[in-house]
C-alpha cells in the first residue's frame, strides 16, 4: 500500500469501528482526536498557511498505528470472506498445517493463492473493493508476483499477462511522466535565466515553468495520480495527452499554430520531449519570438481547459489575436513601440523558418 496514513478515510474508519461494536461515545472521541489536526507549510524556514485535512491519520501520533490496524483488518476480513466462500484458497506450508491466505506487516501485505486465473481475479476484486472503501491504494511500483516451482510455464505466463494488463495503463502513464520531465540541471539553469528575463505575464512564466517540469495537469499526469480514468486525448482521440501533446501536437493545437509563424519550426520538433522542445525553442528564437510562442502555448492550454470543461473554445485565429492583445496590454506601460501590430504581423505572417 502507498502512503497509508495519509489516505485513511475518516468515514471508513468510523464504519469499521461501528461494525466492530465500538460504542458511539468512543467513536466520537476517536473522531475528535483525528479531525482536530491542522497542517502548516514550512516555506523558507517559516510556518505559513493552515490547511484543515478531511482524511488521513497523523504521523507520529501514538493512536495512529492502532487506528490504521482497524482499517487494515477490514482487508483481512475481505480475504477471509473470500476464503470462506471458496473463491480464494490459501497456501499450506506442509501437509496438515493450516491454510495461510495472507500475512500483513504494517503496510506490507503478502497474499497467497492457488495459481489459477480465478484466484487472481478474486484477489484483484478484493483489492479493488478495499481501495474504493478505505481510500488506500496498492503501490504497483513495489508489488511483485512469485510462483512456486510447481507452477507450469503456461500458467505463469497467463497470470503475468493478467497482472500486466492491470499495470500497463499505469506504467505507460508513468513512463510518459518520467521521460517528459526535465532532468538536466545545466539546461535548466540557462533556460530558467532566459525565462525569467522575458517580458510576459508572471502567470504565463509559471505555466511554462510547469511545462518544463511536467507538473501541468495533463491527462497523463492525472492518470498517474488516479484522478483521470484514461490518458487518451479527449480533443483529438489520437494519442496519450502529455503536456507536449496538449500544447503542440494535438490536432486542435495544430490549428492554432497554423495561424502563427512558428508552425513550420515546431513541426520539426515533433516527437521530442516537452523540455527538449522548450530548450530548442529558447536557443533558436529571438526574445520577442520566444515571448510570443510562450503566450500562444499558454493560450492553447487555457483553450483546452475551456473546451474540456464547458465544450467551448475560441476559433484558432481569434485565440491568436486574443493572446497578442493580452501581451500588448501587459507591455503597455513600458513599451513606447506600437507592439500589437508588429507582434500580430510576426505571429500571423512572421519570418520564414524553412
Ligand atoms: Zn489531442
UniProtKB/TrEMBL annotation:
**Domain Reverse transcriptase: from-to ranges:** 1-166
InterPro entries named in the record: DNA/RNA_pol_sf, Retrotransposon-Effector_Assoc, RT_dom, RVT-Znf
TM region(s), chain numbering: none
What's the protein called, per UniProt?
Reverse transcriptase domain-containing protein
Q: Which organism is it from?
A: Dipteronia sinensis
